[in-house]
Design a protein that fits this description.
By secondary structure, this protein is of the alpha/beta class. It contains 28 helices and 25 strands. The structure holds adenosine-5'-triphosphate. Adenosine-5'-triphosphate binds next to helix 13, strand 12, strand 13 and strand 16. This is Magnesium-transporting ATPase, P-type 1.
């Protein structure tokens, strides 16, 4: 039998050993086959592939790379940097210059564009490599069933998702990412989120079928697609497409992946777009003003273009990428925090509200059973025994890749008490689901022929709502509303002690062969409660203290009982205030929901969608919101937040969806991450403040001088060379570290506040320029010298000096690093030296510059002293306490 070769690197379904070469298919092509036909076609079986066969297929088909991980090639990266809006505007200005045959301006603009694109794409390549290395530390794995050789029994083991091949048998559990396109062979209560593919926000049920229904290409229930994630239940599936052949890859290629706008987009992009509008307006304004006042025509165009270029912070993308990449690398090395998406570092610094789940974040998620009691509150080991039967068979029949900690705790306690869940036979299971908040197993009791017993355990409210009776001392009594309320009060009292309570109920049903569903879980008999204690995380209290000092408000959004959550808060020194429940907020949305949770610290009994709704409402109300969680129930909220944070041990889908991964499950790492974010944002803010205010000042002065003088205040080439010097100096901000003042509060870069700031400082800068003109007039008059070249040189020198002063005075923090001058003071000094020497050097005449008289330098020193004093005063008013 000849084996069909698939195209290398595609991961397409290989043809069947006995099938002709053209029988290759993606997930949908095999959808109409029965599982057996499909397995035969894929030369696989229910026991999975052998390791050797899997290696052969991997070498032939290539890796199963998820589209989001593709690294762009150099040319693609370069082209992408050309698409940057600043670059696009510069290119347009270059074209305009070329059209009016202003070749000098066009050449300088081309150099500017080339340099910024090379710097940006190499910066991105560097950041991309660093990010890939960081991502590797949190590599995504899949549980695959393979055999060492043909005769050996299959073994389940974790492998990197990239190593999956067509024909592999994969196990899925809650929180797993579907690692490739799969055909389900078995499933138990399986539901998947496939919003990335279909946009549907609620989980969709998936199950195995022998005879596939004819649903066309829509959404076959027996296929799970890469990019979706398991919301609840478990399953086993056969890989039918990997890598570029998955449906996700096709959708990704067609649409690209768009994420909701985050705080970074709102601030940095907001500022960038405002500037671009200014830049586009500048040339026509200059032309019109010169035509109206001086009667000049199109000959002013190169000057107008140069003024617009002068306003452009071309290095913005380069400085942003380099600053964030440096901050992220340092945070990974020293803070144990991996930033997977660079802008998330800015968002960490800007975070105003951090929403947390409770279990595993404030607590250790190592619950221990403290007692088990009957419905009357009397000790009853029988309740624990039934809970253990439920836990054992749910885990066993659902083939969950990772057991639940509550189930493990119940099994450990029952084992210690000598209970044996294996005395019962398991029939079916409905695994735990954070929306239902309960789990169920169906078992056969020893000696009870023709009877199936349903064992249900879960949150007290949800189990009690399904109970018709309560058992005490072997006798069943009807459960009315008053008794239910009494039981819930008892539960609330127990949770006040910090305990987590699981209600346990059973029901006998006539044995049947059909599937069990959620609707079967009614008319149960409550047996009692198992109380568990989950110790607090040792570092949580300190970490919450640090966050409070840094001005980050913390909110707990938990699936747990309000009492347990409130007690945990109190024990950690956090005032829980009025504890809300998600049920009470169900009718609220948007601003009303944000207002309701604004004053609260705890919202309990949250389903996954509630957590996401609350996070989205806070964001919608203008709060930069982070979310930290590690469970399946946290995934929608991780996506909804400006910055999603998860510990490294979190379920796969949480780790994959998060922007920031904590190497250890330690809340103190958040404090370090927030600090790193604020240092990076501080550097960016300083860069923007300085660049934009001096650019604006120069442009205003140039416009005014252009109208007052009979000649151009600066030649286009001079404007551009000066701009090149500024750009090079400003790269120093990527290496800078601002002072600790930035740690005091959230550091969002708000476009409006920025524009106000740069207008004030731009005007001060323009005033310094006007003072320089006056000084120059005095100097020239005294020296009896004159000429355009001298004017240009004098202004060139002044501009570089004022820029150097602004860099020193509008930046926060120490000027030295370990006793040596920091990068920004060095760059400022270099600017001053160039400003002083270039007009005097042989390059001066080539650029149309001639040395000003010595008196000018003395007067310039006085202007600079006044300028420095004005800057320092304005700084005290607009940047209080930043030193
Ligand atoms: N394996 C399980 N079997 C039965 N019931 C469970 C199981 N795990 C959790 N529960 C119940 O469901 C409730 C909600 O669980 P969920 O996992 O949504 O949140 P949580 O772990 O309590 O809190 P957090 O949202 O802070 O992580 C729990 O308080 C518990 O009562």
């Amino acid at each position: 039998m000849a084996e069909t070769d698939a195209a290398p690197g595609t991961g397409r379904l290989p043809g069947p050993r006995e099938a002709p070469a053209e029988v290759t298919a993606g997930a949908a092509d095999g959808a109409a086959l029965t599982p057996l036909q499909l397995m035969r076609r894929l030369a696989s079986g229910p026991r999975g592939l052998t390791e050797a066969e899997a290696d052969t297929r991997l070498a032939r088909d290539g890796e199963n790379t998820v589209p989001a991980w593709y690294t762009p090639t150099w040319p693609r990266r370069f082209l992408r940097s050309l698409r940057d809006p600043f670059t696009a505007v510069l290119l347009c200005l270059g074209l305009v210059s070329a059209a009016v045959a202003s070749w000098g301006t066009a050449c300088v603009i081309t150099v500017l564009v080339g340099v910024s694109c090379v710097l940006r794409s190499s910066g991105e390549a560097h950041a991309g490599r660093a990010m890939a290395a960081l991502r590797e530390m949190v590599a995504t794995t899949a549980t695959v069933q393979r055999r060492p050789d043909d005769d050996a029994a299959p073994r389940a083991r974790e492998i990197p998702v990239e190593e999956l091949v067509v024909g592999d048998v994969v196990r899925l559990g809650p929180g797993d990412l579907v690692p490739a396109d799969l055909r389900l062979l078995r499933a138990s209560g399986l539901t998947v989120h496939q919003a990335t593919l279909t946009g549907e926000s609620t989980p969709v049920a998936k199950y195995a079928v022998d005879d596939p229904p004819d649903v066309g290409d829509a959404d076959p229930p027996h296929l799970c697609f890469q990019g979706s994630s398991v919301a609840s239940g478990s399953g086993t599936g056969l890989v039918v497409a990997t890598g570029a052949d998955t449906r996700f890859a096709a959708a990704y290629r067609a649409l690209g992946r768009r994420r909701a706008e985050t705080a970074f987009d709102r601030s940095v992009h907001g500022i960038a777009w405002t500037l671009i509008r200014f830049m586009l307006l500048t040339p026509p304004l200059v032309l019109m003003a010169n035509a109206a006042v001086r009667g000049r025509g199109l000959e002013t165009l190169p000057f107008a273009v140069a003024v617009a270029v002068g306003l452009t912070p071309e290095m913005l993308p380069v400085v942003v990428t380099a600053t964030l990449a440096r901050g992220a690398a340092r945070l990974a090395a020293t803070g144990g925090v991996i930033v997977k998406r660079l802008p998330a570092l800015h968002d960490l610094g800007a975070m105003q509200v951090l929403c947390l789940d409770k279990t595993g974040t404030l607590t250790q998620d190592r619950p221990v059973v403290e007692r088990s009691v009957d419905a009357r509150g009397r000790p009853d080991p029988g309740v624990l025994r039934w809970a253990a039967v439920g836990s054992f068979w749910t885990l066993e029949l659902a083939e969950l890749p990772a057991p639940d900690t509550l189930d493990e705790a119940v099994l450990a306690a029952a084992d210690e008490a000598g209970a044996d869940p294996l005395a019962h036979d398991g029939v079916a299971a409905l695994p735990f689901d954070p929306v239902r908040r309960l789990a169920a197993a169906v078992v056969r009791r020893p000696g009870a022929l023709g009877v199936h017993t349903l064992v249900v355990k879960g949150a007290a409210e949800d189990v009690l709502a399904r109970c018709a009776r309560a058992r005490s001392d072997g006798a069943d009594t009807a459960l009315d509303d008053a008794e239910r309320a009494r039981l819930l009060d008892t539960v609330a009292r127990e949770t006040d002690e910090g305990l987590r309570l699981l209600a346990v109920a059973v029901a006998d049903r006539p044995a049947r062969t059909g599937e069990y569903r959620e609707c079967d879980l009614r008319g149960l008999t409550l047996l009692g409660f198992v109380a568990l204690r989950d110790a607090l995380a040792p570092t949580a209290a300190d970490a919450l203290g640090v966050l409070a000092r840094r001005g980050v408000r913390v909110k707990i959004l938990t699936g747990d009982h309000p009492g347990t959550a409130a007690r945990a808060c109190r024990d950690l020194g956090l005032d829980p205030g009025e504890v809300l429940t998600a049920g009470a907020l169900a009718q609220l949305d948007g601003p009303a929901l944000a207002a309701a949770v604004d004053g609260a610290t705890v919202v309990a009994r949250c389903a996954p969608a509630d957590k996401a709704r609350i996070v989205a409402a806070l964001r919608g109300a203008g709060q930069v919101t982070g979310f930290l969680g590690d469970g399946v129930n946290d995934v929608p909220a991780l996506h909804a937040a400006d910055v999603g944070i998860t510990p490294r041990g979190a379920v796969t889908v949480a780790r994959e969806g998060a922007d920031v991964v904590l190497a250890e499950k330690d809340l103190t790492a958040i404090g370090r991450a927030v600090a790193a974010g604020r240092y990076s944002s501080g550097s960016l803010a300083a860069y923007l403040r300085i660049t934009l205010s001096s650019n604006l000042g120069n442009v205003l002065a140039m416009l005014g001088a252009g109208l007052l003088l009979s000649f151009l205040p600066m030649l286009p080439a001079q404007v551009l060379v000066q701009n090149l010097c500024f750009d090079a100096a400003q790269l120093a901000f990527a290496l800078d570290r601002p002072g600790d003042g930035v740690l005091r509060g959230p550091a969002a870069l708000r476009p409006r506040a920025f524009l106000r700031f740069i207008t004030v400082f731009g005007l001060i800068n323009a005033a310094a320029d006007v003072a320089t003109f006056a000084a120059l007039a005095v100097a020239l008059h005294t020296a009896g010298a004159g000429g355009e070249e001298v004017f240009h040189a004098a202004w060139f020198t002044e501009n570089l000096f004022t820029q150097a002063l602004v860099m020193l005075l509008l930046r926060a923090g120490h000027l030295t690093v370990r006793g040596r001058p920091g990068p920004v003071p060095c760059a400022a000094a270099a600017l001053a030296v160039i400003g002083l020497l270039l007009p005097l050097s042989p390059l001066g005449p080539a650029l149309g510059l001639a040395a000003p008289p010595p008196l000018y330098y003395a007067l310039l020193a006085a202007v600079l002293a006044l300028y420095g004093t004005a800057l320092a005063a304005a700084r005290r008013r607009y940047l209080p306490g930043t030193r």
